[in-house]
Amino acid sequence: MPGILILDDDPDVALAARLALRKLAAVAVRNEPRDLAAALDETAPDVLLLDMNFTPGASDGAAGLALLREVVARRDAPAVIVMTAYAEVELAVQALKGGAVDFITKPWANERLVACVQAALARRAPTPNSAAVGELLGDSAAMQSLRAQIAQVGASEASVLILGENGVGKELVARALHRASKRAAGPLLAVDMGSLPEALVESELFGHKRGSFTDARESRPGRFVAAAGGTLFLDEIGNLPLPQQAKLLAALE
Predict the structure, then answer these.
(1) Is the pTM of this model over 0.70?
(2) How many C-beta neighbours within 10 Å does residue 210 have?
(3) Which among 45, 155, 204, 219 has the fewest CB atoms less than 10 Å away?
(4) Has residue 142 been placed in a domain?
């Protein structure tokens, strides 16, 4: 069974996250940053939900960013989703550049939290390509042609449509394109469109302002803003309802 570790110094917040996620995986909770390393060794989680501030009054995320660096340096590093009560674009971008796979702002909608963690767990699941560890293997004519296309397209500023059946390695190609691009130093943000509730798609992609709808208690940057200067990989884009595909097309154009 997959595992989730939650590190948040607010026991109430940690409990709320645990209750929301308990049907997805085994969930462990820690409240002290000093307990993180031991908890990672003990629970070997697939996903870590990491708070960004542990000092009363702090809002710069420095403590969380330091912990993030320690986690991603581990050989068995889990997928890290950072949590903060401060919806600052710069902090989210720093976390993504530092190796986080996603971010979520507090207070959250439970369906948003569940979708975020589900996507992270799905990417941790073994696939026929998992042994490649982000590299494209093989020396066949087809693979050589693919690498040549990646090198050519990666150097451009064009939006890229990657086609293929489930499990063939579309995300590996997206990562290779990112590494080959002028934006390689920026974040690579992957979004599983199939796991997003339809009602949250626009908010997730384009963000929202506080008070713009009933549950918008905090402003939140969208994925387009968070991935600025890097690459935004929209997985399973065909699962988007047609009206939202039209809005996405307008944004890309």
Answers:
(1) no
(2) 10
(3) 155
(4) no
